[in-house]
Amino acid sequence: MATLTYCKGLPTPADELNELGFTDFEMFLEAYAPIFRAASIETVNHLLLSTQFKKSDWNTHLQQTYGINKRHANGVISAA
To answer: Is the N or C terminus of the chain more exposed, i.e. has fewer CB atoms within 10 Å?
Structure first.
């Protein structure tokens, strides 16, 4: 059975916000989301169409194609 836990978010100090009202982390997530989406779609299509999947080769492909690091490429593969 799942347990729900309430976590109250603390307000972000004003000096950590940029002129748009976002933190650096929020800006990173906003910029990274389209890259992750495109890489995930390509990975799912590759998994559906190919008969053989070599994770290390695909990881290298994602890194080179999307300019992401190995950890992010592994995240894409895991999510797909």
So the answer is: N
- Per-residue pLDDT band for 77 (boundaries 50, 70, 90) equals very high
Q: How far apart are CA 39 and CA 43, in angstroms?
A: 6
Rounded-to-integer distance, Cα 62 and Cα 74, Å: 9
Going from N- to C-terminal start, the domains of the chain cover 20-79
Q: How far is residue 37's CA from residue 57's CA, in Å, rounded to a whole number?
A: 20
Neighbours of 60 (CB within 10 A): 13
Q: pLDDT band at residue 5, thresholds of 50, 70 and 90?
A: confident
What count of other Cβ atoms lies within 10 Å of the Cβ of residue 54? Answer: 10
Max CA distance (Å), the chain? 52
Kindly list the distances between the CA atom of residue 48 and the CA atoms of 2, 59, 61, in Å, as whole numbers in the listed order.
32, 16, 17
